[in-house]
Amino acid sequence: MKIAIASDLFWPMINGISVFSKNLAEQMTARGHEVVVFAPSQTGDYYVEEVDDYRVVRLSSTNFPFYPNQTETLPEPRKIAGGRITVPRIYLHNGYRLSLLPIREIRKFCKENNFMPDVSHIQLQLFVGQAMIDFSRRHNIPVVITNHSSPENLFDNLKMLAPLSPIINRTVLLYTKRFALQADYATMPTQQAIEWHFRNPEKAKMPIKAVSYGIDLSRFTPEKPPKEFFEKFDLPQNLPIVMNIGRVDAEKHISTLILAFNEVLKNNKKAQLVIVGDGTDRPNLENLVYKLGISRNVHFMGTQLGEDLVNFHRAASVFVSASPTETQGIVFLEAAACGKPVIGVDVGAVKESAKMV
After folding, report:
1. Could you give the dihedral angle defined by the CA atoms of residues 28, 33, 34 and 35, in that order, rounded to the nearest 10 degrees?
2. Domain 227-356 class?
3. pTM listed for this prediction
4. What is 2-210's CATH number, 3.10.180.10, 3.40.50.720, 3.90.660.10, 3.40.50.2000?
5. In whole angstroms, how far apart are CA 190 and each of 23, 150, 151, 169?
6. Domain extents for the chain?
7. What is the pLDDT along the chain (357 residues), one digit of tens a residue?
8. Residue 315 three-state SS
């Protein structure tokens, strides 16, 4: 089968959508299917790359300077007026990449490479996703749409739009629902996510089902990290470790986790909080840790990939997330697969995910 995966977010960006899309491409390829991923270029120019036996068509893109591309270490925010005012961050060279007019390059690749998909799988409701729907409709190709995110996952980080975020979030939620109605089949990772978008999902014009993200259980296994791992990251081997892994952005509410951990320290002064990931909220969280006087107990590890990421899960005594906006949360599944207890907030899809694991 020929499968087209269209995602406005894709590796090397690090978030749930890009990780799921990458895993999907790898697993479908391993099952013998021909997979082509259409995603924004990280350089701005059109090109095609071979990745693990599948192709990624990098579509011409432009820089969106108000949100980071999540592929590089974020610069420290600039302050003025003697440090009293923080200047809003502008990512002139490392912002999120947008492919504004991708349809011509999609047509070009398919024609030149004799690639006509048997099915198109759309991962995000932006320009690449809509262009692939338009291409598929013209060629009578079935369309599957998976919705991964909530509006808060973007707009809570755009501080300049904060006063308008309730209106924007409702508008985007309605747009997401209407976008999904273009599909022949729609999926979301949890039943709660479906009910959030569709009051009566059984009456939707297309079938819509809850399909979990899934993870690679051959990688995430309940083993003890090697001694060298603890030495590499200067982590204690015999102290309780509270682990948080993911984007370090405002909507993840890591500040709530830090405040709760500060209460834990009143009863267990040796406990450690390890935060793995990077994002726009990291400077604020580091300041909070400093003001609370708990810098010796809180470790910011930055973005980690590969076997190190797996070993961070394995090193945990417990995995904790304070994020209320997850549609499932891949990190919950990864932590549970490594044999760790998982704690999340009692809200929406997080509650459903916790029951799954």
Report:
1. -20
2. alpha beta
3. 0.79
4. 3.40.50.2000
5. 18, 13, 16, 20
6. 2-210, 227-356
7. 999 999 999 988 878 888 899 999 999 999 999 999 999 998 999 999 999 899 999 999 998 766 666 666 555 666 555 555 554 555 545 667 899 999 999 999 999 999 999 999 999 889 999 999 999 999 999 999 998 876 555 555 555 555 656 676 677 777 887 888 899 999 988 888 888 777 787 777 889 998 888 888 899 999 999 999 999 999 999 999 999 999 898 889 999 999 999 999 999 999 999 999 988 888 889 999 999 999 999 999 998 989 999 999 999 999 999 988 777 788 999 999 999 999 988 876 777 766 666
8. helix
